[in-house]
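Example S7 (structure tokens).
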């Protein structure tokens, strides 16, 4: 792992096994950082933040280094995509066409912000003084040292979602990748050094959540924690951060509703709904895991989604033609299988899949449940796997009500041939993002984040960048 300029082991010497989800075999090991290592990394970041080389770098320098980093990721795209697939399990075409190019685009987008940081000038009014006897202005300063903790579903992309805006703002960062998928974060750190970033601007500590992650979130030396992961862990991190008034941005769980209205072409809606849940084997925070279909088209859409599920090619990510890769870990496979059992115990009916696929690796069939109550656990809790609950609704008001019956508010989707109708529904769904007729909100310039228990703050877009800046108001006496 990288601390300052030093590629180092954990102080304890402990290591973590990194497994290929397609085979369950160990491919390599990485250091298992503990509190002592995290402390060293935070200090290295602080030194860089306050130092001449990084702390004193000009906005154009930060922009240039970020653009160089984007170029290097692009140059090594094939290799990085392969590492991602071996580590996470996802189909190679997804790593190649989604993860890596999205990361490159986002780094370039953030590079642009480095040179566009502006404050304001303000005319103050003070009792007893005349106009122009005082002057005030605001500056946007980097928030400081950032601790970033990320999940395993889009390892490289989640890393750059934190690293790139932090560096554009002039922050130094300590990144802790997920224990299941540490490899592309390490490669990113190598490339950051090659791109010219001064030592200590980017530090990567590999380690487990309850030890390295918790130590980072609770460290008094960090100024902001940026987290993506489960709501349960996000709450713990938020509480630890509050102890030091550390700024937080939390991108947490979701149970995203996909609402299909009765004027759709059922084939179009079915294909959109299948993609929303089965992409990345459902290991997506915005996975459309609750499908609400208006009664008139219910049978046709259910048929369409079931047919797609039944035909998906399940296989290793490196195998040509694979559409559905394995889940990331044995733990995740057990979790998904457990939810399918729970759904059936709660009275749902299985219409597709339902079981583990094969005996080697951690594959699970695309699975569809019908007849679950809106309050059932499979319709309320985040599963993070290829498991879809399909429920009928009785029209726009009913759909909005069931969609909003959730502690989560990350995202949603609406399908309708009438843009007015779709938009009216979209406006009433309480989520941070919503897609209409298959629109995608994962563009660097579009803010992304959750309402309700899906998080605090935004990533991407100007709003996401500003989460890495403080505001300083400076008041000057003119006379
Ligand atoms: P999942 O359960 O799907 O792995 P998590 O929210 O547990 O999702 O994991 C997301 C990230 O949070 C990972 O990097 C993990 O190491 C980290 N993490 C897990 N538990 C903690 C914790 N108690 N404190 C800080 N980070 C944690
Ligand atoms: Mg792995």
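Recovered sequence:
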């Amino acid at each position: 792992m990288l601390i300052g300029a030093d590629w180092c082991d954990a102080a304890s010497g402990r290591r973590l096994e990194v497994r290929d989800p397609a085979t369950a075999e160990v491919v390599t090991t990485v250091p298992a950082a503990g509190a002592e290592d995290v402390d060293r990394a935070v200090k290295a970041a602080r030194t860089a933040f306050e130092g001449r080389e990084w702390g004193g770098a000009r906005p154009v320098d930060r922009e240039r280094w970020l653009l160089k980093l984007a170029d290097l990721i692009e140059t090594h795209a094939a290799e990085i995509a392969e590492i991602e697939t071996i580590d996470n399990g996802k189909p190679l075409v997804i790593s190649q066409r989604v993860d890596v190019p999205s990361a490159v685009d986002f780094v370039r987008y953030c590079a642009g912000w480095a040179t566009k940081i502006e404050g304001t000038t303000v005319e103050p009014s003070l009792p007893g003084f005349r106009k122009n006897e005082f002057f005030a202005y605001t500056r946007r300063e980097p928030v400081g040292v950032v601790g970033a903790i990320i999940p395993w579903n889009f390892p490289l992309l989640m890393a750059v979602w934190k690293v790139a805006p932090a560096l554009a703002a002039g922050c130094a960062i300590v990144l802790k990748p997920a224990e299941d998928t540490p490899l592309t974060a390490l490669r990113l750190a190598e490339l950051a050094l090659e791109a010219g970033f001064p030592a200590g601007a980017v530090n990567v500590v590999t380690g487990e959540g309850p030890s390295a992650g918790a130590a980072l979130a609770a460290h008094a030396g960090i100024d902001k924690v940026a987290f993506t992961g489960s709501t349960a862990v996000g709450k713990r991190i938020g509480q630890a951060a509050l102890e030091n008034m550390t700024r937080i941005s939390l991108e947490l769980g979701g149970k995203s509703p996909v609402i299909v209205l009765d004027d759709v072409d059922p084939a179009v809606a079915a294909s959109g709904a299948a993609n929303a849940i089965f992409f990345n084997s459902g290991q997506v925070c915005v996975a459309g895991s609750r499908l609400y279909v208006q009664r008139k088209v219910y049978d046709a859409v259910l048929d369409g989604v079931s047919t797609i599920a039944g035909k998906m090619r399940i296989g290793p990510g490196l195998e040509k033609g694979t559409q559905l890769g394995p889940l990331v870990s044995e733990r995740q496979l057990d979790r998904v299988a457990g939810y399918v059992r729970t759904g059936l115990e709660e009275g749902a009916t299985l219409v597709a899949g339902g079981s583990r696929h094969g005996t080697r690796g951690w594959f699970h069939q695309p699975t569809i449940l019908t007849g679950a109550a809106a309050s059932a656990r499979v319709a309320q809790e985040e599963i993070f796997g290829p498991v879809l609950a399909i429920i009928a609704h009785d029209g726009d008001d009913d759909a909005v009500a069931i969609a909003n019956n959730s502690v989560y508010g990350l995202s949603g989707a609406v399908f309708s041939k009438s843009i007015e109708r779709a938009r009216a529904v979209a406006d009433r769904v309480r989520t941070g993002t919503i897609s209409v007729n298959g629109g995608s909100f994962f563009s660097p310039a579009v803010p992304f984040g959750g309402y309700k228990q899906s998080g605090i703050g935004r990533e991407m877009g100007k709003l996401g960048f500003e989460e890495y800046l403080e505001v300083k108001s400076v008041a000057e006496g003119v006379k």
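Notes on this example. The radius of gyration is 23 Å.
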